[in-house]
Amino acid sequence: MNSIIKPITILFLILATSIASAQVKFEAKVSKKKLGVNERLRIDFEMNQDGDNFVPPSFADFDVVGGPNTSVSNYSRNGKRSYNKTYSYFLAPKKRGNFTIKQATIEIDDETYKTFPISINVTAAVSKPNGNTAASDIASENIHLVAEVSNGSPFLNEAITVVYKLYVSTETGVSNWREKDIPRYNDFWSQNIDIKGLNVQEGEYKGEKYRYVVLRKTVLYPQKTGALKLEPLVLDITVEVPSNRRDIFGRPLMSKVPQVVTAGSRTINVKPLPEKEKPSDFKGAVGDFTFNVTTSKTQLNATESLQAKIEVKGKGNLKLFEVPKLTVPSSLEVYEPEHQENVRTNLNGMQGSIADTYTIVPQYRGKYPVPSISFSYFDPVSESYKRLSSDEIIIDVLEGPMAATNTPENTTSNTKQSVDPNTNTFAFIKTTSNWTPIKSEPFFKSKAFWSLVLLPFLAIPLAIVVRRKKDERDADVQGNRIRRADRLAKKYLSEAKKAMGQKEAFYLALEKALHNYLKAKLNIETSDFNKEKIENLLKERKVDSDVVTDFISILENCELARYTPITQVTMQNDYDKAARTISLIDKQLR
């Protein structure tokens, strides 16, 4: 029995070995699954048998900076043949995020084989990227991106400036550059300062002479306290470095090397405003300001109007706090204020003025005091709170009706009435009647009966006309679509009006109204929305350029409003502008 089992066992082992040796392997391998946005990734597609029609994945989220490189190894050891073929690619991620490298395919022995998808996590730039060649080492030593921060420890809502400078050594050149990863200032109010031209300047970096250009200037106002991280700016640059080759005159030839440089992350330690001695009317103003309350006139007649202006001037976070409210006697009719901003932003922060202008209409003659108004702010230079107060203003109404007053004499006099016993006090009560019988006729002979009988027959022609109109309306697909869009626009504008004062809800409803209106009027889908296409389509339909500009500006306001402080006055203006613009487009569309 054992003599039979042994040959069978050996046979099974030989078959298993031959099957294993004949198994096809086709797989993808990466150098790492987590890398910085400034690093390089190598991916190898390996197979143990030769194949045809190799199709790599699309690499949509990466730039192919090298490859495909093909390597083949074919050798025999101890009578056992080994074969390996590899396709290699070098990839540079386009941005941060989680990405998937999809399947590659190849045909081996008339069978199609696929690799498994690979997930790659691309993080922020790292300080020591991999994949540097000798030329890249030279480039990395001679080119530096620096973020210069004006103040690393500001107070809450105090302005700081970040200036990004690109330093290049005298032996190195730069042929082109592009921003690969732009920092997102999530915990800051931010505004970029326009740079007109890139002026090359001379300077020093770590004690050595360099040339540099200022690429970006940004003003930041921190909105949170504690350690806030500034994300790095990342650039893709083509660097020209000297090579070992020389021209016929002995001068070194330059080699162009793609290089990714980063400014590195910075941490800003934001100090909270002191709670000690904080005024009760403090609303978040930080800087150096003046405060003034003025009226266009102090003497007028009833039902005439005057303007009262509350203005804050100076340097600080002007767009990030509200002007104090006006308080007047109830006898004066006051309308919602008109908000005005005259603010410019430079490397020193916001400067200018903000103001609320109220229209006041007195109803009665008299003298009415406008009480003193106070305004408090925090001065980061002296690290103390300051309060400014306006003078009391007397509004003298010269002519008009007198306000009604109730004196004690008026309210208590003539409260009793004498009763004359000789008059017939209860004469209104009737003691006799003059009723008459009511004549009635049978209902089936009445006019109401015959009217009810004939009414269905008279309604038949009317129903036929109504049905035809309804069929015509239902057949008008485009008209129904326009009517539905109009109803949606009115609905969302109504929701936007209800959400007045709630920034995110208001602008979301306003944006939906504009989008639904365009979907019907221009017959485009939401996926096709972009400002250039909308502008071209409206102009093709003979809409005035001013109206088109207003419409595009409303869309831009809806986008920007999510990231910037907005007052209720601005919301009201945007709502009125949207309603007016939709009405004008309706009239002009052809």
TrEMBL record:
Keyword Iron: no
Signal peptide as annotated in the record: 1-22
InterPro entries: BatD
Pfam families (alphabetical): BatD
Top-level taxon of origin: Bacteria
UniProt keyword annotations, A-Z: Membrane, Signal, Transmembrane, Transmembrane helix
Membrane-spanning ranges: 448-466
UniProt entry tagged with the keyword Translocase: no
Entry protein name: BatD family protein
